[in-house]
Amino acid sequence: MNDPKHHETLDPENWDEMRQLAHRIVDDALDYIQSTAERPAWQAVPKEVIERLESPAPGEPTDPVAVYEEYREIIQPYTMHTAHPRFWAWYMGSGTVFGALGELLAATLNPNLGGGNHAAPLVEKQVIGWIRKMMGFPENASGLLTSGGSMANFTALTVARNTNCGYDARREGVRSAPGPLTVYASTEVHSCHQKAIETLGLGTAGLRKIAVSDDYTLDLEALASRVAADREAGMIPFCVVATAGTINTGAIDDMNAIADFCQSEGLWFHVDGAIGSVAVLADNVRDLFAGMERADSIALDLHKWMHIPFEAGCVLVRDASLHYDSFALVPEYLHREADDGGMASGSLWFSDYGLQLTRQFRALKVWMSIKEHGLARFGRMMARNVEQARYLGKLIENTDGLELTAPIGLDIVCFRYNPGGLDTEELNRLNKVLLVRLQESGVAAPSYTTLNGVYCLRVAISNHRSRFEDFDLLISEVLRIGGLSK
After folding, report:
1. d(Cα 197, Cα 154) in Å, to the nearest integer?
2. What element of type H or E holds 382?
């Protein structure tokens, strides 16, 4: 028993040295965020770094200082610099300092948010209560923090399938369905819904993609026609997914009209609000979401426009009993009674509302961020991004050689470089090359999409550090690379 290995742990061998390193790491992290605009918005990973990141795991310990130095050398410079004021790729929040510190504290405490009698589930309950009120849901609605919008949407669609198909789908399975089960959404719906529908056993054909109008919102006449035809063919329509901010253009479906349709047809009304639903906090676009509060379920992402560090999604379900009945499973090793006392007491077990039993304490960074800033400040940041999108749109309209390729929805601007004299295929190739060169320049990092066969640059302005002059710089750089700069 005197063998040192019997007393070995994973704690630092020298606490003072680790404390010194920890202080340096925090200082460097704050410097990284504070000076983010001084670095490229993106840079490619060099071949030698890729090779180093393919090396085998060490069998013996490495000095923590050396590990940290390697991180600074080969990882930090080559990540997605979402904190950069000109990072507009895909649709990502840009993080906050206090949110990052909240993540550190959550990892320090390291609780399991599956359930149990401790403070962490109460924090998640409070956060969900804040979000529920923000979205206009009733007090008795349920909620769950998830890894992101994909899992939030999957959770909601599971509840819809289990409870709105005319039989007990959870216990009898999809093979007992009286006909093929079908979900309806626009052609602009996020790809995570197809994955969810396939995973739920409905097959790819279980997601019926409905045409959109010129503004990229769901065509309600086409929806009604397809639902009626599917019912006539013996299918079982059970859910409509409305999108509160499409991934391509930021378009917002007509929530009240879809809610009316679902109510008249007995369909579950789900809203994918991962892109835009939190913009109910923004005065200049709040009215666009009218009717969303009528949904049976909503999926949203706090790590997008509310800038909580990844991962932080959320699902809300109007009828908590349906949510619970879709996921609750209490084996003997998790049995608990509210009045028994001890660690297992209490009725708040979030594992009863989703797939995961083991869940991280993601609620803490949300709680700390909202406490620090207040919801009104988040709303002001969103409203400014909307103004910036409109500003960029005006710049594009007033600049020779540039053209908008879609209406501006919320904070997403799609455009292309068009010097004239080229067909669509040639313009697509030209804009693909232009985007890569723009990203490689490090000046700005927008992304891309294709709309009706037209390849375009896509600027998703979910960034609280962006300034109006950043968009002037973007335009001048696009023209410079394209060869039309004056």
Report:
1. 8
2. helix 375-397
- State pLDDT tens for residues 150-168: 999 999 999 999 999 999 9
Structure tokens at 67: 């590990």
Question: Rounded to an integer, what distance in angstroms lies between the CA atom of residue 279 and that of residue 298?
Answer: 14
Model confidence at 485: pLDDT above 50: no
Give the angle 465-94-122 at the CA atoms, nearest 5°: 125
Average pLDDT taken over every residue of the chain? 95
Spatial separation of the C-alpha atoms in residues 26 and 143, rounded to whole Å? 33
Output the pLDDT for position 6.
72
Per-residue model confidence as pLDDT tens digits over 181-198: 999 999 999 999 999 999
Q: Longest C-alpha distance within the chain, in Å?
A: 83
Pair type for strands 445-451 and 454-460: antiparallel
Element (H, E) at 74: helix 64-74
Task: Answer yes or no: are the C-beta atoms of 240 and 216 closer than 8 Å.
Answer: no
Q: How far apart are alpha carbons 25 and 19 in whole angstroms?
A: 10
- The pair of structure tokens assigned to 479 is 């023209």
**Residue-level pLDDT at 125:** 96
Closest CA to 408 of 257, 285, 274, 256: 285
Side-chain-facing half-sphere of 167: CA atoms under 13 Å:
13
**Quick check: 171 and 199 in contact, CB under 8 A?**
no
Please tell me the distance from the alpha carbon of residue 479 to that of residue 472, in angstroms, as a whole number: 11
Helix 15-34 vs helix 64-74: angle between axes, to the nearest 10 degrees? Answer: 20
Rounded Cα distance between 138 and 50, Å, is 50
Tokens describing residue 259 = 């809610």
| pTM for the model | 0.94
Q: Find the range with the poorest average confidence among 10-14, 205-209, 466-470.
A: 10-14
| Residue length of the chain | 486
What are the distances in angstroms from CA 424 to CA 129, 399, 427, 450? Answer: 49, 20, 5, 12
Alpha-carbon gap, residue 410 to 245, rounded angstroms: 7
Residue position matching structure tokens 């639902």: 227
* Residue 27 near residue 68, CB atoms below 8 Å: no
* Average pLDDT for 30-45: 96
Asked if residues 474 and 390 have their Cβ atoms less than 8 Å apart, the reply is: no
Cα separations in angstroms, 269 against 115, 210, 277, 355: 29, 15, 15, 22
**Can you tell me the distance from the alpha carbon of 473 to that of 227, in angstroms, rounded to the nearest whole number?**
48
d(CA 450, CA 452): 7
Structure tokens at 37: 């605009």
Question: Which DSSP letter does residue 244 get?
Answer: B
User: Which pLDDT belongs to residue 483?
Assistant: 83
